[in-house]
């Protein structure tokens, strides 16, 4: 998977993109992260990448020409890549969106700054618009880092077997069950006996039940539309839930 990030602040990516799992994945050639400074495509001697908005108003807007130059240059090298604009107006970034993007050949991610990008960037070049949530960041760099991170861990072989994404929250529609490690007791809080029992079938059953319980407590809307197995239906009953009313109402 190839990521190309168009930004005014490439130095921000040092660290998040060059440590731990992403570093290992890059070293192995499983992912490739290209950083491109949008200013390199500005055409005046001050490398201007922003200007005041037509119609007046606060702040500055990122100019279309440097972004057009950057996008076209990267697209020439990677014609199969999808162009993504980070914007609060985009579709919400979820596990499902990350999965969908992980199947792309490559992603070209535009990091906005100031009041955002000239609308013509969006209309002429953008294939998809992604929002991290209903809040406003100072720029698209952190959004791009989140997208690269979440998508990369879904690329085959990026995670080792022991770090497999298949048991993580959202992978099967539910939140993850509670996790514990040594010591068996801390400040009076004990690890549930079942996890120390060595009975793997019972542990699996406990974990599934905890997934449902936790999802119901924090994100009941996620239960809606889940296809329950026969075993799940039994667990739902034990939790006092009707398998047909998956919105979490008992
Ligand atoms: C200060 S914001 C611009 C906000 C814009 N004026 C608005 O009200 O929608 C600058 C840049 O940060 C990025 N950004 C801000 N919030 C974001 C979010 N929730 N999700 C994704 N990107 C975001 C976008 O790239 C945006 O162009």
Automatic annotation (TrEMBL):
Localization in the cell: Cytoplasm
Main subcellular localisation: cytoplasm
Superkingdom per UniProt: Bacteria
InterPro entries per the UniProt record, alphabetical: Alpha/beta_knot_MTases (IPR029028), tRNA_m1G_MeTrfase_C_sf (IPR023148), tRNA_m1G_MeTrfase_TrmD (IPR002649), tRNA_m1G_MTases_N (IPR029026), tRNA_MeTrfase_TRMD/TRM10 (IPR016009)
Gene Ontology annotations of biological process type: methylation
Ranges of residues in domain tRNA methyltransferase TRMD/TRM10-type: 1-223
Catalytic function, reaction form: guanosine(37) in tRNA + S-adenosyl-L-methionine = N(1)-methylguanosine(37) in tRNA + S-adenosyl-L-homocysteine + H(+)
Entry EC no(s): 2.1.1.228
Keywords noted in UniProt: Cytoplasm, Methyltransferase, S-adenosyl-L-methionine, Transferase, tRNA processing
Pfam families xrefs: tRNA_m1G_MT (PF01746)
Role description: Specifically methylates guanosine-37 in various tRNAs.
HAMAP family with a match to the protein in the record: TrmD
Assembly with partners or alone: Homodimer.
PANTHER family associated with the record: TRNA (GUANINE-N(1)-)-METHYLTRANSFERASE
Name of protein: tRNA (guanine-N(1)-)-methyltransferase
Top-level taxonomy: Bacteria, Pseudomonadati, Thermodesulfobacteriota, Desulfuromonadia, Geobacterales
